[in-house]
Carnitine 3-dehydrogenase
Amino acid sequence: MNEHIPSPAMVRRVACIGTGVIGGGWVAHFLARGYRVTAWDPAPDFEAKLRRLVDAAWPALAELGLAAGASGQNLVIAATLEDAVADAEFVQESAPEDLALKRDLLARIDAATPVGVVISSSTSGYGMTEMQVDCPTPQRLVVGHPFNPPYLIPLVEVVGGERTEQWAVAWASEFFEVAGKSVITMQREVPGFIANRLQEAIWREALHMVANGEATPAQIDASITEGPGLRWPLLGPCLTFHLAGGEGGMAHMLDHFGPSLKSPWTRLAAPELTDELRDAMIKGCEEAAGGRSIAELVAERDRAVIAVMRAIDGVRNGKP
Protein backbone atom coordinates (compact mmCIF):
# COMPACT_ATOMS: atom_id res chain seq x y z
CA MET A 1 0.00 0.00 0.00
CA ASN A 2 1.24 3.47 -0.90
CA GLU A 3 1.71 5.47 2.28
CA HIS A 4 0.90 8.67 0.37
CA ILE A 5 -2.66 7.54 -0.39
CA PRO A 6 -5.04 9.22 2.09
CA SER A 7 -7.03 7.30 4.64
CA PRO A 8 -10.64 6.63 3.59
CA ALA A 9 -11.87 9.51 5.75
CA MET A 10 -9.53 11.96 4.00
CA VAL A 11 -10.56 11.16 0.41
CA ARG A 12 -11.90 14.17 -1.49
CA ARG A 13 -11.45 13.24 -5.18
CA VAL A 14 -13.35 10.35 -6.73
CA ALA A 15 -13.30 9.18 -10.34
CA CYS A 16 -16.33 7.45 -11.89
CA ILE A 17 -15.68 5.53 -15.10
CA GLY A 18 -18.90 4.65 -16.90
CA THR A 19 -21.94 6.87 -16.32
CA GLY A 20 -25.00 4.82 -17.25
CA VAL A 21 -27.76 4.14 -14.74
CA ILE A 22 -25.39 2.61 -12.16
CA GLY A 23 -22.37 4.80 -12.82
CA GLY A 24 -24.51 7.93 -12.92
CA GLY A 25 -26.12 6.88 -9.65
CA TRP A 26 -22.66 6.60 -8.12
CA VAL A 27 -21.82 10.09 -9.38
CA ALA A 28 -24.95 11.51 -7.76
CA HIS A 29 -24.22 9.71 -4.49
CA PHE A 30 -20.62 10.88 -4.26
CA LEU A 31 -21.60 14.47 -5.12
CA ALA A 32 -24.23 14.41 -2.39
CA ARG A 33 -21.59 13.25 0.08
CA GLY A 34 -19.44 16.27 -0.70
CA TYR A 35 -16.81 14.71 -2.98
CA ARG A 36 -15.36 16.24 -6.12
CA VAL A 37 -16.27 13.75 -8.82
CA THR A 38 -14.51 13.42 -12.16
CA ALA A 39 -16.52 11.38 -14.66
CA TRP A 40 -15.78 9.79 -18.03
CA ASP A 41 -17.75 7.60 -20.40
CA PRO A 42 -17.00 6.65 -24.02
CA ALA A 43 -20.48 7.70 -25.19
CA PRO A 44 -20.27 11.05 -27.01
CA ASP A 45 -23.40 12.46 -25.33
CA PHE A 46 -22.73 11.16 -21.83
CA GLU A 47 -22.36 14.57 -20.15
CA ALA A 48 -25.89 15.74 -20.92
CA LYS A 49 -27.42 12.42 -19.83
CA LEU A 50 -25.32 12.35 -16.67
CA ARG A 51 -26.31 15.86 -15.64
CA ARG A 52 -29.99 15.03 -16.20
CA LEU A 53 -29.60 11.95 -14.00
CA VAL A 54 -27.91 13.95 -11.23
CA ASP A 55 -30.59 16.66 -11.42
CA ALA A 56 -33.34 14.04 -11.22
CA ALA A 57 -31.72 12.37 -8.19
CA TRP A 58 -30.92 15.57 -6.31
CA PRO A 59 -34.36 16.13 -4.67
CA ALA A 60 -34.23 12.66 -3.10
CA LEU A 61 -30.64 13.22 -2.02
CA ALA A 62 -31.55 16.58 -0.49
CA GLU A 63 -34.37 14.94 1.44
CA LEU A 64 -31.95 12.32 2.76
CA GLY A 65 -29.54 15.08 3.80
CA LEU A 66 -26.62 16.54 1.88
CA ALA A 67 -23.09 16.62 3.26
CA ALA A 68 -21.37 19.94 3.87
CA GLY A 69 -20.21 21.40 0.58
CA ALA A 70 -22.29 19.01 -1.53
CA SER A 71 -23.04 20.47 -4.93
CA GLY A 72 -23.60 19.46 -8.52
CA GLN A 73 -20.94 22.04 -9.32
CA ASN A 74 -18.36 19.59 -7.99
CA LEU A 75 -18.83 17.42 -11.08
CA VAL A 76 -15.90 17.54 -13.51
CA ILE A 77 -16.22 16.05 -16.98
CA ALA A 78 -13.01 14.47 -18.28
CA ALA A 79 -12.08 14.25 -21.95
CA THR A 80 -10.30 10.92 -21.55
CA LEU A 81 -10.20 8.01 -19.14
CA GLU A 82 -6.61 8.91 -18.28
CA ASP A 83 -7.61 12.47 -17.41
CA ALA A 84 -10.44 11.21 -15.21
CA VAL A 85 -8.22 9.10 -12.97
CA ALA A 86 -5.07 11.23 -13.05
CA ASP A 87 -5.53 12.68 -9.55
CA ALA A 88 -8.16 10.28 -8.20
CA GLU A 89 -8.02 9.04 -4.63
CA PHE A 90 -10.62 6.35 -5.36
CA VAL A 91 -11.99 4.96 -8.63
CA GLN A 92 -15.42 3.39 -9.23
CA GLU A 93 -15.85 1.58 -12.56
CA SER A 94 -19.39 0.93 -13.81
CA ALA A 95 -19.11 -0.42 -17.35
CA PRO A 96 -21.69 -2.80 -18.89
CA GLU A 97 -21.64 -6.49 -17.91
CA ASP A 98 -19.28 -7.71 -20.62
CA LEU A 99 -16.30 -9.67 -19.32
CA ALA A 100 -13.93 -8.81 -22.17
CA LEU A 101 -14.88 -5.14 -21.85
CA LYS A 102 -14.41 -5.20 -18.09
CA ARG A 103 -10.99 -6.82 -18.36
CA ASP A 104 -9.76 -4.30 -20.92
CA LEU A 105 -11.21 -1.29 -19.13
CA LEU A 106 -9.91 -2.25 -15.71
CA ALA A 107 -6.45 -2.84 -17.17
CA ARG A 108 -6.54 0.67 -18.68
CA ILE A 109 -7.76 2.18 -15.43
CA ASP A 110 -5.10 0.33 -13.45
CA ALA A 111 -2.33 1.54 -15.78
CA ALA A 112 -3.44 5.19 -15.52
CA THR A 113 -4.46 5.50 -11.85
CA PRO A 114 -1.90 6.76 -9.28
CA VAL A 115 -0.02 4.01 -7.47
CA GLY A 116 -1.85 2.50 -4.51
CA VAL A 117 -5.25 4.05 -5.22
CA VAL A 118 -8.03 1.48 -4.80
CA ILE A 119 -10.08 0.65 -7.90
CA SER A 120 -13.59 -0.75 -7.46
CA SER A 121 -15.90 -2.41 -9.97
CA SER A 122 -19.69 -2.21 -9.95
CA THR A 123 -20.10 -5.63 -11.56
CA SER A 124 -23.32 -7.46 -10.75
CA GLY A 125 -22.05 -10.98 -11.30
CA TYR A 126 -18.41 -11.32 -12.35
CA GLY A 127 -15.78 -12.16 -9.78
CA MET A 128 -12.77 -9.87 -9.48
CA THR A 129 -10.54 -12.92 -10.04
CA GLU A 130 -11.80 -13.20 -13.64
CA MET A 131 -11.73 -9.44 -14.27
CA GLN A 132 -8.26 -8.53 -12.96
CA VAL A 133 -6.29 -10.93 -15.16
CA ASP A 134 -4.77 -8.22 -17.38
CA CYS A 135 -4.18 -5.60 -14.69
CA PRO A 136 -0.56 -4.58 -13.96
CA THR A 137 -1.26 -4.11 -10.22
CA PRO A 138 -4.25 -6.37 -9.50
CA GLN A 139 -3.65 -6.30 -5.75
CA ARG A 140 -5.60 -3.04 -5.40
CA LEU A 141 -8.74 -4.04 -7.33
CA VAL A 142 -11.98 -4.97 -5.55
CA VAL A 143 -15.63 -5.44 -6.35
CA GLY A 144 -17.88 -2.74 -4.91
CA HIS A 145 -21.30 -4.09 -5.94
CA PRO A 146 -24.08 -1.50 -5.46
CA PHE A 147 -27.84 -1.70 -5.87
CA ASN A 148 -29.94 0.39 -8.18
CA PRO A 149 -30.18 3.29 -7.68
CA PRO A 150 -26.81 3.63 -5.89
CA TYR A 151 -27.70 7.11 -4.64
CA LEU A 152 -30.73 5.76 -2.77
CA ILE A 153 -30.14 2.09 -1.84
CA PRO A 154 -27.43 1.94 0.84
CA LEU A 155 -26.06 -1.58 0.36
CA VAL A 156 -22.69 -2.25 -1.27
CA GLU A 157 -21.00 -5.67 -1.25
CA VAL A 158 -17.18 -5.62 -1.18
CA VAL A 159 -14.95 -8.55 -2.08
CA GLY A 160 -11.53 -9.02 -3.62
CA GLY A 161 -10.19 -11.50 -6.15
CA GLU A 162 -7.46 -14.10 -5.79
CA ARG A 163 -4.79 -11.50 -6.56
CA THR A 164 -6.33 -8.73 -4.44
CA GLU A 165 -4.49 -7.92 -1.22
CA GLN A 166 -6.48 -7.74 1.99
CA TRP A 167 -5.54 -4.13 2.70
CA ALA A 168 -7.43 -3.05 -0.44
CA VAL A 169 -10.61 -4.85 0.65
CA ALA A 170 -10.39 -3.31 4.13
CA TRP A 171 -9.66 0.15 2.72
CA ALA A 172 -12.57 -0.01 0.27
CA SER A 173 -14.99 -1.22 2.94
CA GLU A 174 -14.00 1.62 5.24
CA PHE A 175 -14.23 4.16 2.42
CA PHE A 176 -17.74 3.09 1.44
CA GLU A 177 -18.83 3.35 5.08
CA VAL A 178 -17.37 6.85 5.32
CA ALA A 179 -19.17 7.66 2.06
CA GLY A 180 -22.50 6.74 3.64
CA LYS A 181 -23.04 3.21 2.38
CA SER A 182 -24.08 0.09 4.30
CA VAL A 183 -21.25 -2.37 3.66
CA ILE A 184 -21.06 -6.14 3.56
CA THR A 185 -17.44 -7.28 3.38
CA MET A 186 -17.63 -10.77 1.94
CA GLN A 187 -15.32 -13.54 3.11
CA ARG A 188 -14.97 -15.06 -0.35
CA GLU A 189 -16.10 -14.68 -3.95
CA VAL A 190 -19.37 -16.25 -5.02
CA PRO A 191 -21.03 -15.68 -8.41
CA GLY A 192 -23.70 -12.99 -8.10
CA PHE A 193 -22.55 -12.09 -4.57
CA ILE A 194 -25.09 -12.33 -1.71
CA ALA A 195 -28.14 -10.16 -2.37
CA ASN A 196 -28.35 -10.93 -6.09
CA ARG A 197 -28.37 -14.67 -5.40
CA LEU A 198 -31.25 -14.23 -2.98
CA GLN A 199 -33.13 -12.00 -5.41
CA GLU A 200 -32.50 -14.48 -8.21
CA ALA A 201 -33.86 -17.38 -6.15
CA ILE A 202 -37.17 -15.55 -5.67
CA TRP A 203 -37.21 -14.42 -9.30
CA ARG A 204 -36.68 -17.92 -10.70
CA GLU A 205 -39.37 -19.42 -8.48
CA ALA A 206 -41.72 -16.61 -9.55
CA LEU A 207 -41.09 -17.43 -13.22
CA HIS A 208 -41.79 -21.12 -12.54
CA MET A 209 -45.12 -20.27 -10.91
CA VAL A 210 -46.21 -17.99 -13.74
CA ALA A 211 -45.12 -20.52 -16.38
CA ASN A 212 -47.10 -23.29 -14.64
CA GLY A 213 -50.20 -21.17 -14.11
CA GLU A 214 -49.75 -21.36 -10.35
CA ALA A 215 -49.73 -17.61 -9.72
CA THR A 216 -49.95 -14.30 -11.56
CA PRO A 217 -47.29 -11.57 -11.43
CA ALA A 218 -49.68 -9.43 -9.39
CA GLN A 219 -50.18 -12.22 -6.86
CA ILE A 220 -46.45 -12.82 -6.62
CA ASP A 221 -45.72 -9.14 -6.00
CA ALA A 222 -48.49 -8.90 -3.40
CA SER A 223 -47.18 -12.00 -1.65
CA ILE A 224 -43.99 -10.07 -0.91
CA THR A 225 -45.19 -6.48 -0.46
CA GLU A 226 -48.11 -7.49 1.78
CA GLY A 227 -46.26 -10.32 3.51
CA PRO A 228 -42.61 -11.00 4.33
CA GLY A 229 -41.43 -7.81 2.61
CA LEU A 230 -42.94 -5.81 5.47
CA ARG A 231 -40.74 -7.64 8.00
CA TRP A 232 -37.51 -7.75 6.03
CA PRO A 233 -36.56 -4.03 6.20
CA LEU A 234 -35.66 -4.46 9.87
CA LEU A 235 -34.83 -8.13 10.44
CA GLY A 236 -34.15 -9.88 7.13
CA PRO A 237 -35.04 -13.53 6.48
CA CYS A 238 -32.72 -15.11 9.07
CA LEU A 239 -33.88 -13.16 12.11
CA THR A 240 -37.45 -13.41 10.83
CA PHE A 241 -37.19 -17.19 11.08
CA HIS A 242 -35.39 -16.78 14.42
CA LEU A 243 -38.59 -15.18 15.72
CA ALA A 244 -40.68 -17.91 14.09
CA GLY A 245 -39.22 -20.26 16.68
CA GLY A 246 -40.82 -18.30 19.50
CA GLU A 247 -38.88 -18.23 22.75
CA GLY A 248 -36.76 -21.11 21.45
CA GLY A 249 -35.49 -18.98 18.58
CA MET A 250 -33.67 -20.43 15.60
CA ALA A 251 -32.90 -23.71 17.36
CA HIS A 252 -36.60 -24.47 17.87
CA MET A 253 -37.49 -23.26 14.37
CA LEU A 254 -34.95 -25.59 12.74
CA ASP A 255 -35.95 -28.55 14.89
CA HIS A 256 -39.66 -27.94 14.24
CA PHE A 257 -39.66 -26.87 10.58
CA GLY A 258 -36.42 -28.48 9.41
CA PRO A 259 -38.22 -31.46 7.86
CA SER A 260 -40.10 -29.03 5.56
CA LEU A 261 -36.85 -28.54 3.66
CA LYS A 262 -37.71 -31.85 2.02
CA SER A 263 -41.14 -30.57 0.94
CA PRO A 264 -41.62 -29.44 -2.67
CA TRP A 265 -42.12 -25.78 -1.75
CA THR A 266 -39.52 -24.54 -4.25
CA ARG A 267 -37.72 -25.76 -7.36
CA LEU A 268 -34.42 -25.11 -5.61
CA ALA A 269 -32.69 -28.09 -4.05
CA ALA A 270 -32.40 -27.62 -0.28
CA PRO A 271 -29.10 -28.26 1.49
CA GLU A 272 -28.90 -31.03 4.06
CA LEU A 273 -29.69 -29.69 7.52
CA THR A 274 -26.50 -31.02 9.08
CA ASP A 275 -25.47 -30.39 12.66
CA GLU A 276 -22.85 -27.97 11.33
CA LEU A 277 -25.42 -25.96 9.37
CA ARG A 278 -27.84 -25.97 12.31
CA ASP A 279 -25.15 -24.71 14.68
CA ALA A 280 -24.02 -22.03 12.20
CA MET A 281 -27.57 -20.71 11.81
CA ILE A 282 -28.19 -20.64 15.56
CA LYS A 283 -24.88 -18.94 16.32
CA GLY A 284 -25.31 -16.49 13.46
CA CYS A 285 -28.77 -15.42 14.59
CA GLU A 286 -27.58 -14.99 18.17
CA GLU A 287 -24.80 -12.74 16.89
CA ALA A 288 -27.20 -10.80 14.67
CA ALA A 289 -29.59 -10.31 17.60
CA GLY A 290 -26.79 -8.55 19.44
CA GLY A 291 -28.01 -9.50 22.91
CA ARG A 292 -31.65 -8.54 22.25
CA SER A 293 -34.19 -11.01 23.59
CA ILE A 294 -36.93 -12.55 21.47
CA ALA A 295 -39.42 -10.21 23.14
CA GLU A 296 -37.29 -7.17 22.35
CA LEU A 297 -36.88 -8.26 18.75
CA VAL A 298 -40.62 -8.83 18.41
CA ALA A 299 -41.34 -5.34 19.74
CA GLU A 300 -38.81 -3.78 17.34
CA ARG A 301 -40.22 -5.78 14.44
CA ASP A 302 -43.78 -4.72 15.20
CA ARG A 303 -42.85 -1.03 15.43
CA ALA A 304 -40.93 -1.27 12.15
CA VAL A 305 -43.74 -3.06 10.31
CA ILE A 306 -46.25 -0.44 11.45
CA ALA A 307 -43.91 2.36 10.37
CA VAL A 308 -43.33 0.74 6.97
CA MET A 309 -47.06 0.15 6.44
CA ARG A 310 -47.88 3.75 7.31
CA ALA A 311 -45.13 5.07 5.04
CA ILE A 312 -46.27 2.92 2.12
CA ASP A 313 -49.90 3.95 2.69
CA GLY A 314 -48.79 7.59 2.59
CA VAL A 315 -47.02 7.11 -0.73
CA ARG A 316 -49.95 5.23 -2.26
CA ASN A 317 -52.51 7.80 -1.15
CA GLY A 318 -50.44 10.92 -1.72
CA LYS A 319 -50.20 11.77 1.95
CA PRO A 320 -47.18 13.73 3.27
About this structure: The first helix runs from residue 21 to 32. The chain has two domains: 8-185, 227-316. The mean pLDDT is 93.
